[in-house]
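4.2 Preliminary Data

To establish feasibility before requesting continued support, the project team ran the inverse folding procedure on a target of 284 residues. The structure was first converted into the token representation described in Section 3, and no sequence information of any kind was made available to the design step. The complete token record follows.
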């Protein structure tokens, strides 16, 4: 790389904690826990993966959201989604669902299987004040429409945002997110990161090393690395196959008041959300 191009480093490494959510789905919470409460513009990252039906079969029955976006990316298995706007679909392995809760939605996500491996991510992306009360909508992206590009020794699925000349199928503008899923075979890859973007790498299989020389940093399986705000490139090597996601976006830099599934800017907006939900007005 030319001397004036700066590599991103990691400002922090975090391991998730085991917990459960929904009606009792076992999962690992990586963002949204004491070691990493938030990573503006991201509010939560969960990784779920089990081949024991008892750990996932109860799913996520109907529940509300207001003020942000929920993203479900499946790696294995299938999840059926239904919501109060009338959307329904099955998210398949390699597919992603990007839902804008906006002013309010009630939805459920239930496993579309009785056995076998169910594995994937759920990411919560905050919305700026101007878009918190936007109309709800969702995008259901089937795996066949997700482009895969080969870069260095990696093959990279571009789910949202841009990687070089490749544009991901998810259309959402609020924080201009980029969401890529990288399979790095033994070797190396250099990944450009958009300027002004912040975010993370999460390794879900194998292990990787960022950078060389003094800035060399190892990131192991099930570890999240918070990317430094400085820099435009990720230089990554792996001595064996590794799989990881890289998710970045523009920080929002606004106050956040959260009450469970409602994420607003002020306490009074939370009270309003709660009252609207109680009065059946959340989705009106
Ligand atoms: Mn939800």
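Position-by-position output of the design step:
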């Amino acid at each position: 790389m030319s001397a004036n191009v700066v590599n991103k480093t990691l400002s922090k490494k975090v391991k998730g904690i085991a917990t459960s959510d929904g009606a009792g789905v076992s999962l690992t919470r990586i963002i949204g826990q004491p070691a990493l409460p938030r990573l503006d513009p991201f509010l939560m990252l969960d990784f779920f993966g089990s081949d024991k039906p008892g750990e996932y079969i109860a799913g996520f029955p109907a529940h509300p959201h207001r003020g942000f976006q929920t993203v479900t990316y499946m790696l294995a298995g299938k999840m059926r989604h239904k919501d109060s706007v009338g959307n329904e679909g099955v998210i398949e392995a390699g597919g992603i669902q990007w839902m804008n809760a906006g002013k309010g939605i009630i939805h459920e996500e239930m496993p579309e299987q009785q056995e076998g491996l169910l594995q994937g991510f759920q990411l919560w992306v905050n919305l700026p004040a101007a878009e918190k009360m936007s109309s709800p909508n969702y995008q259901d992206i089937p795996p066949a429409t997700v482009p895969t590009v080969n870069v260095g020794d990696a093959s990279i699925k571009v789910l949202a945002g841009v990687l070089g000349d490749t544009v991901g199928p998810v259309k959402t503008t609020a924080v201009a997110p980029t969401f890529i899923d990288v399979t790095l075979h033994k070797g190396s890859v250099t990944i450009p990161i958009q300027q002004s973007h912040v975010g993370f790498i999460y390794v879900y299989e194998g292990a990787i090393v960022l950078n060389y020389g003094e800035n060399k940093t190892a990131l192991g399986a099930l570890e999240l690395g918070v990317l430094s705000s400085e820099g435009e490139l990720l230089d990554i090597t792996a001595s064996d196959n590794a799989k990881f996601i890289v998710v970045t976006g523009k920080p929002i830099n606004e106050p956040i008041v959260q009450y469970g599934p409602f994420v607003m800017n002020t306490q009074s907006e939370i009270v309003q959300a709660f009252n609207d939900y109680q009065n059946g007005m959340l989705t009106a």
